[in-house]
Amino acid sequence: MSKKLFTSKEITILSQNKYVKKVSNKRFTYNDEFKRLFIVENQNGKLPR
Per-residue pLDDT averaged across 17-33, rounded? Predict the structure, then answer.
């Protein structure tokens, strides 16, 4: 598995997303609002893609 690091530009873009809680050069974390929204949509039959 490759270890992709986010560029400064990608970090900036991700940081501006209202559903992103925290961003580093290695990973990002979704906030609780997104997690709740995802669970509701998933329970209603919407697939992740």
Answer: 97
